[in-house]
Amino acid sequence: MKHYIDFHEDVGIEELNYLLDIAADMKDKTKKGIKHHYLDGKTLGMIFTKSSTRTRVSFEVGMYQLGGMALFLSNNDIQIGRGETIYDTAHVLSGMLDGIMIRTFKHQDVVDLAKFGSIPVINGLTDDQHPTQMLADLLTIKEHKGSLKGLKLAYVGDGNNVANSLLQACAKAGMDVAIGSPADYTCPEKYVKQAEEDAKITGSKILMTTDPFEAAADADVIYTDTWTSMGQEAEKAKRVEIFKDYQVNSKLMGVAHKDAIFLHCLPAYRGYEVTEDVIDGPQSVVFDEAENRLHAHKAILVNCYLNS
Ligand code: CP
Ligand code: NVA
Fold this sequence. Notes:
alpha/beta, 4-stranded parallel β-sheet
């Protein structure tokens, strides 16, 4: 069974290039209006226990463009929300669907869904990881910079799900990655170790620092994300105080390469993790990045479905 749950475990170094090639091909076909019904008649159940704009729309439209269909299964409407187990849900959905995409809080729930079910499972974000975002991000960087190997990506801000997945993905792609976060809000050691493991093979360098300027120095890509992820709303005031020196603004962009690009997974909060002049300025590629979710997710779907 081909799942897409954890970038480190589920995406091989060679496979990453293959996925990026399929995503680029999907984009080309979509732009030219060439039909690509690789998943004719197939179904995808999309379970959401957290909000989403990009992930939901891209998977739903993606399935349609591939000749299949997607069902939106909100936590408020399905029985998981009333306490039905992952075990039972996995068995029931495996009997009716061809695949599941799930966005939820506990990473283990996604792992269990795959373990107990018999269809591919795609992780649409957990508290720990956001692997589908990564393929779109790498595609965007490749489009703007021509290649990935040897580039430096600096992530400044909260060491959250997006940062953990960036560590995994950049190391696989042979990119140097620097994470600049406050000491108590950096990425868990597990993700740093995984990235270091892949870095030994791909030749990339990993830097973990509390200094946002050290992280951003000479970077080709500057990346940030919200200071308050879904589920952390009660901590917002405290977090704004903790992260105030980790804002991506023109001063921080000034230490990166002159032609550096700015990425953000979105949704963004202008005036907090990024200033308006940066996210709406000439170095920002955030809307290309958002659009690429569609093309990248189609590559993930085709790879999971056709290799399971
Ligand atoms: N970047 C991202 O996952 O966006 P959504 O929360 O809108 O899906
Ligand atoms: N870190 C953010 C990403 C949203 C796409 C969150 O988990 O809310």
